[in-house]
Every structure is written in structure tokens, then in C-alpha cells.
Amino acid sequence: GRISTDLFTATLKGDVTKTDVFSLDVLADAKIENVPAFAGKYGVVAPAMTVLNKVSFSTRVTGHPGDLKFSDLSFRHDSDLLKVNFNGAAALSDSLNFDGAFELDAPQLRQLAAATGTTLPAGDAYKAFKLEGQAKGGLTKVALSNASIRFDDIRGEGDLALDLSGVPHLSGSLTTNVINTTPYASASGATSSTNTKQASDAWQTDPLDLSPLNAANANLSLTADGIRFQDIEIGKSVVKVTLDNGRLEANVEETSLYGGAGSAILVANARSATPSIRLNANLNTLNIGPFLGA
Can you tell me the distance from the alpha carbon of 277 to that of 285, in angstroms, rounded to the nearest whole number? Predict the structure, then answer.
């Protein structure tokens, strides 16, 4: 059968049989040209509706109510702010589970955040985000293997897991290119120079804006080609990142800096009324000339 309106098209083709229960073997295809308009017409209420636009869905459905299989499953959402693609399989019994290739692209991250009611700190950061890989899991817990992530100029590859059963929790390990922390520190209110005199002349009394740290929790292991903060350039580093209830701890377990080697711990705390940042470093055999000139 086929149903078609100016906003929605659906096609069903196959067999439905009944013995003790209904059994299905159906090819299904559906398209919604404008999700907000469709939702408004049929009284559907969903958060961040302005983010959504065009959706298409196709699959083969087999099984019976209470135990359905979706093979050759393809889902696609496309709007200026958010693109989502999934190709794989799913099963629906007591819960929904899926396994397939997944892609999420937010080319205008600030506008997406604003549309969902989130205000990001001003600055040259939080511009774009893209995530793709092999996704396996359900509606509350997802594992992403062979993942590729792009966040502004940061590129990473590895394995990730996301738990949405409470406060979003991200865990996993990534290998990245050089991570430039400068635009994020500046967006949070840090001074624009590492030079001691310039920094003191530009000292600001406005509190740091570390509010993005409250959005999620995380446990990540990063192997970065390097880390940059303003004029300071750190070599290849192994970093353990823990984000818990607004408190970020980045433990740089192995790093190189201007001919030296060592470790460091950075703590950014948004839990208290006055957000704070603290850095403790332990470096050996440092080449002091280039360091002072940074």
C-alpha cells in the first residue's frame, strides 16, 4: 500500500499472515519532507524541533509484534544544522538494539546548540562537530568502534562508548592530531598571552565561563601528536581525561616540552560559584631558552 500527502510519503509492500500471532515480511519506505511542518499538522511535540528537516527511512521488517527484525535498514536526516545517517540492522523486542554504520555531522555547532537551548561561550571555538563509525547498542548505551571524530580543527580516531541512561557519559580512547587549547581557553575567559607582563597588564576580573563542563561526564584516554596553548607548544603526549559533574582533570602522563620530558595535571572546576583552573607540571632536562622565549 501507499500513503502520500504534501508532507509525508509511505510505502508498504509484502505479506502479513496470522496464525497464532501476526507475522510480517514487509518492505517499508517512508519520507517526511519537513519534520516541523509534519509535527505541527499532526500534533507531535518534540524538543529542538527547529533543528529537524527532511527524514527518509527504508527497511525490510520481519517477525511478529514483540519480536521484530529490521534488515537493510537505512535512516537519513538532513538539515542545515544536523545531518544523521545510519545503515545497518536493528531488532525490537523488549528494547531496541541496532548495529551499523553511523554518521553525525553538525557543521554549525553554535547554531545547533542555540536551537536546543544551550548557550556556548563566545569566541573562535565550538564551530563544527562530526562523528562517524560502527555503532552498536540501544537507545541508552552505544559503542562506536573504528570511530572518526572532528571537533573544529581537532581530528581523532579510536573507539568510544556513550551512556545516555543518566547524565551523558563518554568513554574510550582516541589518537589525535595536535590539540590547540587556545581558542577554548580564550572562550572561557583566559588572558590572550602567556607572557607574564602582558598577562598581568591584561588581567581580567570577570569569572571564567566553564559552563560547557556541566553538559556531560567523560573518561577518555588520548594520545595526541602535541598540545598547544598560546605560544607554548608541547610534543607528543598521553593524556587521561576525567570529567565528572563539572570538574575536568586532564592528567598528562607522558609529554615532551622544549627538549625536556615530564608530566602535568590540569584541573578546570566549574562546580563552585567561582570557576577555577589549576595546573601542576613536573618537567625534567628542560631547554630553558626556547621555553622563556615562548
Answer: 26
The 10s digit of each residue's pLDDT in 232-288 is 788 889 999 999 999 999 998 877 665 667 788 888 898 887 888 887 877 665 555
Measured distance CA(72)–CA(75) in Å, rounded: 10
Show Cβ contacts of residue 166 under 8 Å, excluding neighbours closer than 6 positions.
none
Q: 113-117: long-range contacts (C-beta < 8 A, 24 or more apart)?
A: 115/48, 115/50, 115/51, 115/81, 116/47, 116/48, 116/51, 117/48
Give the whole-angstrom CA distance, residue 191 versus residue 215.
24
Q: How far apart are CA 124 and CA 211, in angstroms?
A: 16
First to last CA, the chain: 70
d(CA 135, CA 159): 10
Here the cell at position 264 is 602535568
> Are 102 and 133 a contacting pair, CB within 8 Å?
yes
What is the C-alpha separation between 56 and 73, in angstroms, rounded? Answer: 11
| Furthest-apart CA atoms within the chain: distance in Å | 84
- C-beta separation of 85 from 68 below 8 A: no
- DSSP conformational letter for 191: -
For residues 258 and 176, what is the distance between their CA atoms, to the nearest angstrom?
20
Question: pLDDT tens for residues 87-128?
Answer: 999 999 999 999 999 999 999 999 999 998 888 888 899 999
CB 29 within 8 A of CB 41: no
Alpha helical stretches, state H, 58-133:
109-115
On whether the CB atoms of residues 269 and 247 are closer than 8 A, the answer is yes
Question: What is the spatial distance between Cα 268 and Cα 214, in angstroms, rounded to a whole number?
Answer: 11
Torsions phi, psi for 86 (to 5 deg)? -140, 130
